[in-house]
Amino acid sequence: MRPDPVVEGETDPYAIAYTPFEAKRVVWSPLAFYTQPPVGKGDHAWMRKPLPENVFTAEEQQCLATAIYFEARGESRKGQAAVAQVILNRVRNPAFPNTVCGVVYQNADQRNRCQFSFVCDGIRDVIRSRSSWQRARDVAMAVTSGETFLPEVGSATHYFASYVRPRWAGAMQKMASIGQHQFFRTRGGGWK
């Protein structure tokens, strides 16, 4: 009989430690929901806020993978992970919706006012590459679970493609350039 890592709402560290490992099988415990990314110098205090449990649901992972696919499918895994990290940073940040789908589709009904260009560009979103879609799904879960974290992106909540220059860029602190994207966070701590 396999030990139960949760007994009456409390986690049992011994049960978690002695749960048999099975490759390619992900087992979630309540501890997974409370993992926090490493908070670096200058990162915002809200980075310590755990992600809500719902980020692991099929619907939320679908929204995250969709954003990765349409915003960064031509990027390396690192570039895709950086986009995913920005989205999850927004979920933690009190200035944005607290769900992945809420973040991705914020202002979707307002042309050129959405947060991610694929959402309101008027182009029908069709997944044409199964391998790119699977890769986006894998990256989405790796970033959500904390398996992948990019310290150089840190608490960035904004990015743009290198071929555009949004007005807000000068008001923010540049964190990194990865592939065709540049990543930014608010200056001076932002939301606390």
TrEMBL record:
One of its GO terms (molecular function) is hydrolase activity. InterPro entries: Cell_wall_hydrolase_SleB (IPR011105), SleB_dom1 (IPR042047). It holds the Pfam family Hydrolase_2. It comes from the Bacteria. Residues 74-184 form the Cell wall hydrolase SleB domain. Keywords: Hydrolase. This is Cell wall hydrolase. It comes from Oricola thermophila.
